Amino acid sequence: MKPARIIILAVAVGAAGLAGLIAMRMTGTKQVVMQQAETIVQKEPTVRVLVSAENLPVGSRLNDKAVRWADWPETALVDGFITDRAMPDAVRDVTGSVVRMPLFAGEPVRREKIADAKTNIMSALLPAGKRAVATEISVSTGAGGFILPNDRVDIIMVRQAAGRGYTTEVVLENIRVLAIDQQIQERDDGVKAVVGTTATLELTPDQAKVMSVAQQMADRLTLSLRSIADAQEEDTRSADYLLSGGTNAPAIQLIKSGEIVTSTTSAGGSPATQAAGASAGGVQDGTEMR
Fold it and tell me: Comparing C-alpha atoms, which of 178, 130, 129 is closest to residue 153?
């Protein structure tokens, strides 16, 4: 190869290398540094709380398999929860206790929902200040057997009134049924009807007195089943007048010659009232037309 050609090639290679170097310096390579943000998850403090290990109906007896410890957010603690801080031996301590209100699996066990192991089951189911009173029922007086424990009923009294056939009176309203016979909860086999002979009712002391009088006076007591939507209503109605020997019989309206005469009948009422009742004969709904 001729020297001139070698010189030309060398100059060309050198020029190309110089051009590349200049180009690299002019453009440069920008290095992008990616900083990965570290996500820090702060664990919320928890407390071990006693919870139900299974569904527990009313009247169940607790044992070591029915309850367990579970982590619970400390900020979500509620008064009445049983914690391992306050009761480290709670599983052993609550063994044998009676469930007063239904507990679902995973639900915290609250002190007000269970009763002491030494307590009788029925007395454990009664809230403070309440009384348990039993009354006889049948298929015809107990809504065909569809009244179950924890249902709400009205107590209707049917009795014979002198010379006026039979009268009906609602003596108690919105009363909770504690048990049918000795059954205090719905059956496990899913049967939704119980044909029993005795219904045990949850009453106040005054309602218990009214019920006792009604049982003596009535020819028949009927339990009228109420809707579950009425459970939150107050049981305000009570036939307290029965305790004083009074009556809640409706007034008799005697309509004669277009004139309405109203008088109230009662056991041992006034002569005018008795006369009106006698003249009424077969009174229907407290009204007679002549």
Answer: 178
Decide if 89 is inside a domain.
yes
Q: How far apart are CA 96 and CA 119, in angstroms?
A: 10
User: How many domains are there within the chain?
Assistant: 3
pLDDT of residue 268: 41
Task: Give CA–CA dist 242/146, Å, rounded.
Answer: 29
The CA distances from residue 27 to 15, 16, 30, 131, in Å, are: 18, 17, 9, 94
* Distances, alpha carbon 129 to alpha carbons 124, 212, 235, 266, in Å: 12, 18, 15, 33
Beta carbons of 62 and 26 less than 8 angstroms apart: no
Question: Does residue 217 contact residue 239 with C-beta atoms inside 8 Å?
Answer: no
Closest by CA position to 273, among listed 264, 281, 282: 264
Question: What SS3 class is residue 243?
Answer: helix
Give the per-residue pLDDT at 238: 65
Q: Which residue stretches of the chain have pLDDT < 70? A: 1, 26-40, 117, 119, 139-144, 163, 183-196, 231, 234-290
Q: Give the pTM.
A: 0.54
Mean pLDDT, all residues of the chain: 74
Amino acid in the structure at residue 229: A
User: What's the N-to-C CA distance of the chain in angstroms?
Assistant: 151
Three-state secondary structure along 50-86?
EEECCCECCCCECCCCCEEEEEEEHHHCCCCECECCC
Whether 25 is covered by a domain: the verdict is no
| 106 inside domain | yes
